[in-house]
Structures are given as C-alpha cells and as structure tokens.
C-alpha cells in the first residue's frame, strides 16, 4: 500500500484543511451548546477554557 492508498488520493494539504474545518465546526457547536472550548494562549504559555460569553479561565485558576 502506498501513501495515496492510505489517504484515498487526498493530498496532505487537503487533509490538513479538512481537519482544520472539522475543528472549527466542532468549536461552533460547542459555543452554541454553551460548552467551554479548550484553547492555548501562546503569549502566556498556558492552556485555558473559553466560555460562550467570551470569558476565559486558565488551567491554574481551574485546578485551585
């Protein structure tokens, strides 16, 4: 089996775009349901939860 067989003839770029779109759709569904979305703040170097109202709770705030 070669690389094309394992990806059904879809290029790496197309797979990456489909993955990104799937994550975007999942995040939209979570917002509608009011479920927090897991994200990462690169400037602070910390993970956080973003709630539907836009508020954030960082991991160190949640665990304490």
Folded structure, characterized:
The chain is 47% helix and 20% strand. By secondary structure, the chain is α+β, with helices and mostly antiparallel strands. The longest helix is centred in the middle third of the chain and has 22 residues, at 12-33. A hairpin with a 4-residue loop joins strand 1 and strand 2 (46-50). It has helices spanning 3-6, 12-33, 59-62, and strands at residues 37-41, 46-50, 56-58. It has 3 helices and 3 strands. 2% of the residues are buried. A 3-stranded antiparallel sheet has the order 1-2-3.
| Rg calculated over all Cα atoms | 17 Å
- Structural class based on helices, strands and sheet pairing: alpha+beta
Numbering strands along the chain, what is their spatial order in the largest sheet? 1-2-3
Q: Number of helix segments?
A: 3
Please tag this protein with its features.
single chain, three-stranded antiparallel β-sheet, 64 residues, 3 strands, 3 helices
Task: Please give a quick description of this structure.
This protein is α+β, with helices and mostly antiparallel strands and 64 residues long.
């Amino acid at each position: 089996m070669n690389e094309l067989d394992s990806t059904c003839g879809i290029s790496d770029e197309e797979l990456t775009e489909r993955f990104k779109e799937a994550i975007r759709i999942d995040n939209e569904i979570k917002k509608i349901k009011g479920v927090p979305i897991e994200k990462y703040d690169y400037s602070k170097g910390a993970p956080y939860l973003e709630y539907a109202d836009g508020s954030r709770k960082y991991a160190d705030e949640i665990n304490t």
